[in-house]
Each structure stands twice: as structure tokens, then as C-alpha cells.
Design a protein that fits this description.
- The complex is a heterodimer of chains A (251) and B (341).
- Chain A is of the alpha/beta class and 251 residues long.
- Chain A has two domains: 166 residues, 3-Layer(aba) Sandwich (Rossmann fold), CATH 3.40.50.300; 73 residues, no CATH class.
- Chain A is built from nine helices and ten strands.
- In chain A, strands 6-7-8-3-9-10 form a six-stranded mixed β-sheet, with helices on both faces. In chain A, strands 2-1-4-5 form a four-stranded antiparallel β-sheet, with helices on one face.
- In chain A, a hairpin with a 2-residue loop joins strand 1 and strand 2.
- In chain A, helix 3 crosses helix 4, helix 3 packs parallel to helix 5 and helix 4 crosses helix 5.
- The radius of gyration of chain A is 18 Å and the shape is globular.
- Chain B is globular.
- Chain B has a two-stranded antiparallel sheet. A two-stranded antiparallel sheet of chain B has the order 2-3.
- In chain B, a hairpin with a 2-residue loop joins strand 2 and strand 3.
- The chains are: A alpha/beta (251), B mainly alpha (341).
- Chains A and B meet through helix 2 and helix 3 of A and helix 1, helix 7, helix 8, helix 9 and helix 10 of B.
């Protein structure tokens, strides 16, 4: 098998006395969809924040494409090709939808310390921004301020901004959160399409969606990895059933 | 794309209005008396100063409360470089002033931008006050009284004298050109990739970082550019008045320029000039009317902040919004009626 896109070694994050992420060692395969599931408070979002550089790990290491990125700031990690979307919508509300993607697309320039030529004259940036907007199916909302589009559309824009940076690895924190079933179906389709040429790490509470699109599933409980394996294994795992899925519905 | 950046910065009718304003400034010296020419010159210089602060407050989201440091500093730099007899060439004096302002802005900015919110405000205030006390306590530069600038910088190429900055009218047009130039420069900056990033930082700093931008670098660059432009305004001010005192870099001056930006409308650039205009003329007329003019000024500022959250520059849009809003609620009411019927 090819080299994993991302590897964590005994990754740990403590907040005061609380261990939010505890000795997590995982390999995320290149080109695969790797879902992380678990009850609230299992440390899933903290794990994503560690991978994206928004939090510094207390101990342990992270390697992205063979390169150690432990402790690197989020902007450096983003430039290496790691994009992320947020559980709580995190956009530029007063900018138009296109401009939201534009900022992401511009992050691909070697530097934005460019003071004189108008931004809109950068054709490659414009193309990337338009492409990302089309990918998240918001081309028709191009000039509408992001604050004025629907919640579901804002969730799509969230993904579009990330795509505009042209990442190779996508960290998706509950992309379906709060969506209606139609909107969910659209985003699941989008994730399927993205999975063809990206590696995905996905946190999601919608287990139907997870089992439908994930190649590998990791179950986290109390900051620790309970089990990792293909969906068929997780679905039938006694340990997982007992500590997590068993609590809710067993669909 | 063009619709986007133009609607965000300057709309088409506004370009016409601003053009008219510039024409107004340009022909005023033939209509008004010397006194008002001086007053307008003050408006334009403070306008440049306020525009530079708007880059920070209105576009980068950095509430600097020490912006007068750069404005006052260049006056002192001009004193330092001006010989006791003869004059210094503007080609030396101006770069010296701009470099000094940019360097000091780099130092103050480097220390301040690692904080945010109230801490940023306090740090910029404290660092600027240090500079204030430095000049206030320095006997070499006249202490708290300040000092005269021996001569105005000369503008010449070789032995050819191009302009006489000592001539009121010449200086007036130099200041006018400087104001227009500063405005255009800021428009260019804001439309360039750099401008897009600082506006993104103001809107959502964490997300801008997560998208891959080293936001601290952009904030510092913005701070240095704004400091250099404030220094440019200070250079013009010192050339205009021929005097510099610590008051120019006190927190009082920093507060006044912030009021100009807020009065005029943050995040518009031209609003800063409008704010300077309003403040200077309010001061002028209120002083004539009553000795309690500062009380009246305070009340007016409070009224503007409460009633015009987008400043005077935002007034047309606000009026349009009110009318539009009424129409909308009327439509909504008719829908309700239709349902009832």
C-alpha cells in the first residue's frame, strides 16, 4: 500500500487535568475516506484541531506526507495542502460567496504581499475561486453576501472555501451538521466526488452517511481510539456496539 | 469580480461625487479668504492622517490608539534634519521622515500585534505615550513648548527651484495632490491581494489563518504602511505650520483622529477626510459660538455614533435602507392583509 497521507504517533492533548486526546496513533491512507466517530466529548474535534495546527499537541507527533508537522501553525499546515472545514460555520459573513472562495484561492499564491496589481487580475486565482464555488454548487449565489444565504448553503460554502485552497487532504468536521435530508444528500454526493482525488478525514454524527462513504472508520471514546477498521468490521464489533453505537439506534 | 470590488470600495456615483469634491478643493482658494484656505489645508492634512488610520481600524481591524506617534514623530525628524541656515531638500527630508515613521511603526507594531482587543489598544497607547514623553522631556527640542522648524524643505532639481513650499497657495496644491494621491494609493492597496487579505483578517482572523495566511505578517505590514502615511501627514503638517510640539503625538491627538474616522465612517477611506472636515469646522464654529464648545462637540459626536453607526459617509445608504425597509414592511403588511382576506 502507498505511504499514508497522515500519521499520528501517540498524539495527546491535555487541557488542565482533562485528557481530550489520549495517545492516538493512527495511519490515514492516501486517497481514502477515513471517518472518525464517537460520542460527544470523545475528542474528535480536538483531534482535527491538532491535525490542522489550530491546537498544539501536549505530546506525540504528526507526519503529513512523510514530513513532520507537529506544532506547526495552522497557516503553514494549510499551505502544505491540508484543508479543513468547521463544525460551526466559519466564513466571512460580509463578503460575497465568491469572495469567500477568493480568499481561499488567493492562499495558493506564493505570497499575498502584493500591493499594486488588482487582485481580480490574477486569472489563476479567479479560476480557482470560481471552480470552488461551482464545486460546492453555489455558482448561482456568487455575488450574494454569505450572511444572507441559507444555513445549508453556508455549510456548502464552508466546503467551497476549503476547496479553493486546492488541498490534497481534507479535514471535515461534521460537514452534515444541522442539514436537512435533501441538503445532506447533496453534500454526501459532493464528498463522494471529492473522495476520487483527495484524501478525506471526516468527523460525522450521521452514521448512515459514514457507513455509506467511509473506507475506514475509527471509533473514539474518551479521547482514546477504541477500534479502527473497515465499516463491516466496525458495524459488527461488540466493543463498539457496547460503548457507542449501542447507546443510540443501531441502524 | 469587478462588480464585487467596486461595490465594496467605491461605487460609480460616488466616484463622481469625490471628483466634484476635489474640484471644489481645487477652486476654493479663488473663492475663499486666506483664513479658510489655511483651514482647508488643515482638513486635508488631517484627512491624510485619518485615512491612514482607517486602513487599520476600518480594514485590518486594528484599533490603534497611538497613531499620533507617527504624525508627530516626522515633525521632529524634520527639525533634526533641517540645518540652522539654509534648507534641506525635500528629496532627503521626505524619505527620512517616511523611513523614520515606518521604522518606529515596525517596532510599535511588532510589539502590539501579538495582542488583540483592549490589550492592543492599551499597548499602542502606552508605546505612543513613551514617544510623547521622550520629546516632552527633551530640552534639545523645546520640551513641552516644542520648537520651530528653521526653514521649509526646498523642492528643486539641481539648481532649478520647482516649488516654494513657503508659498501658501503652492503648499495648498501640494497638500491637495498628496491627499488625492494617498486616497488613490489606498484604493490600489485595498484592491490588490494584500488588501483582500487584511479585509479578510478583519472579518474573520482565525479563518484567514486557517486558509494559509501568516496573518501577523499582514497585520504588521498594514501597521507599517499606515504609520508611514501618518508620518507623511505629519511631514505636511510640520511644513505647513513650521512648528512642532509634543502635543502632536499625544494620546489626545490619537483620540481626535480616531473620532474623525468614526464620524466620517470606518472602512470607507474617503469618510476619513469627511470626518476631518466635519471635526475641524465643528471646532471652528463651536469655538466662535460658545466657550463650552467641547461640551457641544461631545454631544454631537455621541449623537453621530448613536444615530449613524456607519458614520456620515454611511448616511445615504442608511437613508436608502430606511426607505427600502419601510417599503418591505409595507409589502409584508399587504401580504398579511391578503391572507386575512
Amino acid at each position: 500500500m502507498a505511504e499514508p497521507v497522515l500519521v499520528t504517533e501517540a498524539l495527546t492533548k491535555e487541557f488542565g487535568g482533562l485528557v481530550a486526546v489520549d495517545q492516538v496513533s493512527l495511519d490515514f491512507a492516501t486517497g481514502a475516506v477515513h471517518a472518525v466517530i464517537g460520542p460527544n466529548g470523545a475528542g474528535k474535534t480536538t483531534l482535527i484541531n491538532l491535525l490542522s495546527g489550530e491546537l498544539r499537541p501536549s505530546s506525540g507527533r504528526i507526519h503529513f506526507q512523510g514530513r513532520e508537522i507537529t506544532g506547526a501553525p495552522s497557516n503553514r499546515i494549510a499551505r502544505l495542502g491540508v484543508g479543513r472545514s468547521y463544525q460551526k460555520t466559519n466564513i466571512f459573513p460580509e463578503f460575497s460567496c465568491l469572495q469567500n472562495c477568493w480568499i481561499g484561492a488567493q492562499a495558493r499564491l506564493p505570497t499575498s504581499m502584493r500591493f499594486f496589481r488588482a487582485a481580480r487580475r490574477y486569472r489563476a486565482v479567479a479560476e480557482r475561486a470560481e471552480r470552488a464555488l461551482a464545486q460546492c454548487e453555489l455558482a448561482h449565489r456568487k455575488d450574494v453576501p454569505a450572511a444572507e444565504i441559507s444555513y445549508g448553503e453556508q455549510r456548502q460554502l464552508e466546503i467551497g472555501m476549503m476547496l479553493a485552497t486546492e488541498p490534497t487532504l481534507l479535514l471535515l468536521d461534521e460537514p452534515l451538521a444541522g442539514m436537512g435530508s435533501d441538503e445532506s444528500a447533496r453534500v454526501i454526493d459532493l464528498l463522494r466526488r471529492l473522495a476520487k482525488d483527495h484524501s478525506l478525514i471526516l468527523i460525522e454524527h450521521d452514521l448512515d452517511a459514514v457507513f455509506a462513504i467511509a473506507d475506514t472508520i475509527t471509533v473514539m471514546v474518551n479521547g482514546e481510539v477504541l477500534e479502527t477498521g473497515p465499516p463491516s468490521q466496525i458495524r459488527t464489533s461488540a466493543a463498539v456496539r457496547e460503548s457507542y453505537i449501542g447507546e443510540g439506534d443501531t441502524s | 469580480m469587478s462588480a464585487r470590488s467596486e461595490s465594496r470600495l467605491v461605487s460609480r456615483p460616488l466616484v463622481g461625487l469625490l471628483g466634484l469634491a476635489v474640484v471644489g478643493f481645487a477652486i476654493f482658494p479663488w473663492l475663499g479668504g486666506q483664513y479658510y484656505v489655511d483651514l482647508l489645508m488643515r482638513v486635508m492634512i488631517l484627512g491624510i492622517f485619518a485615512m491612514s488610520l482607517d486602513l487599520l481600524i476600518g480594514y485590518t481591524g486594528l484599533i490603534s490608539f497611538g497613531h499620533a506617534a507617527f504624525f508627530g514623530l516626522t515633525g521632529y525628524v524634520l527639525v533634526m534634519v533641517t540645518p540652522e541656515t539654509g534648507s534641506i531638500s525635500v528629496w532627503l527630508a521626505l524619505p527620512a521622515c517616511l523611513i523614520a515613521a515606518a521604522l518606529v511603526a515596525a517596532v510599535i507594531g511588532w510589539m502590539s500585534i501579538r495582542t488583540s482587543g483592549i490589550y492592543f489598544i492599551m499597548l499602542t497607547l502606552a508605546l505612543a505615550q513613551m514617544l510623547y514623553y521622550f520629546f516632552n522631556d527633551s530640552t534639545k527640542y523645546g520640551g513641552s513648548d516644542g520648537t520651530f522648524i528653521a526653514s521649509r524643505p526646498s523642492v528643486s532639481i539641481g539648481s532649478l527651484r520647482l516649488l516654494d513650499l513657503g508659498d501658501r497657495l503652492t503648499l495648498y496644491y501640494v497638500v491637495l495632490a498628496s491627499m488625492v494621491g494617498t486616497f488613490l494609493l489606498l484604493m490600489v492597496l485595498l484592491r490588490a491581494p494584500f488588501g483582500q487579505v487584511i479585509q479578510a483578517i478583519r472579518a474573520n482572523e482565525a479563518r484567514t489563518r486557517a486558509l494559509g495566511f501568516a496573518v501577523q505578517h499582514y497585520k504588521l505590514a498594514s501597521f507599517v504602511i499606515a504609520g508611514a502615511l501618518a508620518g507623511f501627514a505629519g511631514f505636511l503638517e510640520a511644513t505647513h505650520t513650521g512648528i512642532i510640539s509634543p502635543a502632536h503625538l499625544s494620546w489626545h491627538e490619537s483620540g481626535l483622529v480616531m473620532i474623525m474616522v468614526i464620524l466620517g465612517g470606518m472602512g470607507t477611506i474617503y469618510g476619513a477626510v469627511l470626518g476631518a472636515f466635519i471635526l475641524v469646522f465643528l471646532q471652528e464654529f463651536l469655538q466662535d459660538m460658545t466657550e463650552h464648545w467641547q461640551l457641544a462637540l461631545g454631544l454631537i459626536i455621541i449623537a453621530v455614533v448613536l444615530l449613524l453607526p456607519k458614520g456620515v459617509a454611511g448616511l445615504p445608504k442608511q437613508l436608502a435602507g430606511t426607505v427600502g425597509g419601510r417599503r418591505q414592511s409595507r409589502d409584508a403588511a399587504s401580504v398579511v392583509e391578503a391572507n386575512d382576506g
